[in-house]
Amino acid sequence: MTSTAPTKTAAERTGAHTDEAASLIGGARARIDALDDRIIGLIQERMAVSAVIQEARITSGGRRVNLSREMDVLSHYSNALGKPGTALAMTLLELCRGRV
């Protein structure tokens, strides 16, 4: 089946008003997409390392979560990124909890 929708120009796809700006935006978006792929990979790596830590802690008779360590992580992200950093750290901690 052939699409009859008109093809959007680069300026229309990016919201730019000139082709030059659209080109710059397109390149920057490609870089952001590559960075996002790297960030996702790092998060997955963090989850795997966290699972190793949790398994060792549980196997030794400890609890799955170490609240003082989580507070350190929250503080680290908050200091580096402000209030949004705290929300990001909370999401990371949630992703990394309970995967054993």
UniProtKB/TrEMBL annotation:
Keywords: Isomerase. Pfam families: CM_2. Gene3D superfamilies: Chorismate mutase (1.20.59.10). Residues 19-100 form the Chorismate mutase domain. It comes from the Bacteria. Residues 10-20 have a biased composition (Basic and acidic residues). Its EC number is 5.4.99.5. The keyword Isomerase applies. This is Chorismate mutase. It comes from Streptomyces atroolivaceus. The lineage of its organism: Bacteria, Bacillati, Actinomycetota, Actinomycetes, Kitasatosporales.
